[in-house]
C-alpha cells in the first residue's frame, strides 16, 4: 500500500492556535511544595491544537524541532512546531490493511472504524518506531520522505499481537512494549484476538522477542527508571487503576509490585493510568486520573497537572523546558 505524503501546510479545519490566540485549560493541584521544582507557580496549560479523535504517543524530534503525535482513530501522525503549527506527518499511520481487522464500521469500545498509530519513540539512530494498532505490529519508519517501513515484530509464537500500544528503549538497546486489546474492534471478545493474554514484550538489541509479563488486564504505558533497574507499567483498567513496578533482570522481570494506585484520588477524576515518562531527576510523570500526576521514585504524589479532559500520554522536549500532553481531542503543553 502506498503512503500518502502530505505537505507541511496549515490545516484549517483544526483549531490551530498561534501564540497570540492560545487559550488555557485546567489548573495545577499542588499537594506538596516539591511540585514547584517541576511546575512553577503561575504556569498555565496551553491548548496548542484541537479536533482529534484520541490523541496519543507524543515524542519530541530534534531533527524536526517539532513534536510528533498520533491521532489513533484518525489513523494519522501529526507534527506540531512553534513556527508552523500543525500539519499531517504520516497518513495512514498504523492501519494499512496488512493485518486482519474485521468489517469496517462495526462497533467497539471507542467507536472507531480505523485504528492507527499509538505509541511513538526514536531509536538510537533517530529513526521513528511506531506502535501500529491496526496493523498489529511494531514498525520502524526507515524513509522519512517516501514513508517506507520495516516490521520489527508482528507475531508471538506465530500469532498476531493484539495491538501494540506503547514502548520504551533501555540504554542497552532492548525495546519493551505493551500489547493490550484496544485496537481490536471488540477488545478481549474480538474473534480476531489470537493471544489469550494482554502482554508486555521485550525485543533485545539483537532482535530476540520474548514475553515477560502475561498477567495484566490492560498493560498500557511503559517506562524505565534512570538507573535501568525498574520497569514501570501503567494499568489502564478502570476497575483496577494502578502503576506496577518490576525489577529488570537479564531474562525479563521479577518482583512484581504495585508502585502507585488511585487510592485517595477520587473516582470523580477522569482518566486511567496510561502514558509514563521519567524526568532526569527520576520523578515519574504519569497520565492518570485527573491529568498528569507527578510522583517521586518513592511513590510520593507531589501534585497533578489537571487537564480537565482524559489525558493519554505526555512527553518532554529535549531540554525539558516543556511537557507536551495528548489530552483527548487536544494537544496541550505546560512550561516546566
Walk me through what this model shows.
There is one protein chain. This protein is mainly β and 336 residues long. It has one domain (26-335): TolB, C-terminal domain (Neuraminidase, 6 Propeller). The chain is built from no helices and 29 strands. The protein has strands spanning 15-16, 23-25, 27-30, 45-50, 55-61, 66-71, 76-81, 85-90, 117-122, 128-132, 137-143, 148-153, 155-156, 159-160, 167-169, 175-179, 199-203, 209-213, 219-224, 230-235, 242-249, 252-261, 276-278, 284-288, 291-295, 301-306, 313-316, 322-327, 330-335. The strands form seven sheets. Strands 1, 2, 4, 27, 28 and 29 form a six-stranded antiparallel β-sheet that branches. The radius of gyration is 19 Å and the shape is globular.
List keywords for this structure.
336 residues, mainly beta, Neuraminidase, six-stranded antiparallel β-sheet, five-stranded antiparallel β-sheet
Summarize the structure.
By secondary structure, the protein is mainly β. It has strands at residues 15-16, 23-25, 27-30, 45-50, 55-61, 66-71, 76-81, 85-90, 117-122, 128-132, 137-143, 148-153, 155-156, 159-160, 167-169, 175-179, 199-203, 209-213, 219-224, 230-235, 242-249, 252-261, 276-278, 284-288, 291-295, 301-306, 313-316, 322-327, 330-335. Helix content is 0%, strand content 45%.
As a whole number of angstroms, the C-alpha radius of gyration is 19 Å
CATH superfamily: TolB, C-terminal domain
Query: Helical region count?
Result: 0
**Mean pLDDT figure:** 90
* CATH class category label: Mainly Beta
Q: What structural class should be given to the helix and strand makeup? A: mainly beta
Domain count: the total is 1
Number of E strands = 29
**CATH topology annotation:** Neuraminidase
Question: What fraction of the residues are assigned to beta strands by DSSP?
Answer: 35-45%
- The percent of residues in helical segments reads under 10%
Q: What is the overall shape?
A: globular
What's the architecture, going by CATH?
A: 6 Propeller
> Which runs of at least 5 residues are low in confidence (pLDDT < 50)?
1-19, 104-112
Biggest pleated-sheet summary? 6 strands, antiparallel
CA-to-CA gap between the ends?
42 Å
- Topology as H/E string? EEEEEEEEEEEEEEEEEEEEEEEEEEEEE
